[in-house]
Design a protein that fits this description.
Layout (H helix, E strand, L loop, with lengths): L17 E5 L4 H31 L5 H19 L21 E3 L3 E8 L4 E21 L2 E15 L11 E4 L2 E12 L2 E10 L16 E4 L6 E10 L2 E5 L5 E5 L5 H15 L2
Length: 274
């Protein structure tokens, strides 16, 4: 059973009871994370197409279940392929072993509120489990009781709205966080130092996480017409493009230039590679 460790926020004259060692996120860090997100997005698109292909060839899974999986994949594709929608990858940020400089999306990451500090700061617990003999789980494997050991890792999160946080309750973190340093504070059991995760105001950099920079010139087969657009997808003989103003265009592959057809075919080769 874990013991309580409440943060002491009282300060004596001239003595600070808690202190932070933090690093600001540089433009280079944001750019590095944005590049990582672009690569992860491309990989996710390819993997989703491959998953759809496998499902459509699958004859072992019941049809209704298979069709539901395909619909889920297609809905995910719609989100991934939208060139104007930002995409934030989980990155290399792990709550199990956070390191300074790591950055990533923690959307829907479930943690337990250990203690609300103030309107923008809180201590949260990331609960990890591993095999062991101490805590019996209600789950069983092949009729044999499963045992786990609960290991809790504390994190100090800052820049968040803690208005709805309640000590001891589970919450879902939302947004992009960076491990900005460590936080040292006094408790009734002594001094503690934990990783500090800062919520990043990503809206100012949002365009870097879209596919707006993927614009290229597309040319008709007879060379009489060109348009600047972003490749979205190829399906049923048609190429879907999106112009920078957000307007979508469906163009038959046969009506595009040889160079453009080669571009689409190269993309198809990557998608179908297994």
């Amino acid at each position: 059973m874990r013991s309580a460790q409440f943060v002491i926020l009282i300060t004596w004259p001239g003595v600070a009871c808690w202190a932070a060692v933090a690093q600001a996120q540089s433009p280079e860090q944001i750019d590095t994370y944005a590049a990582f997100c672009r690569a992860e997005r491309s990989a996710a698109i390819i993997q989703t197409y491959q998953a759809i292909d496998r499902l459509e060839r699958d004859r072992k899974t019941p049809k209704a279940e298979r069709e539901q999986y395909v619909r889920n994949c297609e809905a995910e594709l719609g989100r991934l392929e939208n060139p104007l929608a930002p995409y934030f990858a989980k990155g290399n940020l792990s709550l199990a072993a956070p390191e300074v400089g790591q950055m990533g999306s923690l959307d829907s990451q479930r943690v337990r509120v250990f203690q609300v500090i103030d309107a923008t700061n809180a201590l949260v617990e990331y609960v990890m489990f591993k095999d062991g003999p101490r805590v019996r789980s209600t789950k069983t494997a092949f009729g044999v009781p499963a045992y786990t050991v609960e290991s809790n890792k504390l994190h100090w999160i800052t820049g968040v709205d803690t208005g709805a946080y309640v000590d001891g309750r589970t919450i879902e973190l939302q947004g992009v966080f960076a491990v900005s340093g460590t936080k040292t504070y006094d408790t009734d059991e002594g001094t503690q130092t934990v990783p500090m995760l800062k919520l990043i105001e990503i809206r100012a950099h949002q365009d870097k996480f879209t596919r707006k920079d993927d614009v290229r010139k597309w040319t008709s087969a007879n060379g009489g017409h060109t348009t600047e657009a972003i490749f979205v997808r190829y399906k049923g003989g048609d190429v879907t493009l999106m112009r920078p103003d957000g307007k979508s265009l469906d163009v038959p592959l046969a009506k595009l230039s040889n160079e453009d057809r080669d571009y689409v075919r190269d993309w198809l080769k990557v998608v179908k590679a297994r």
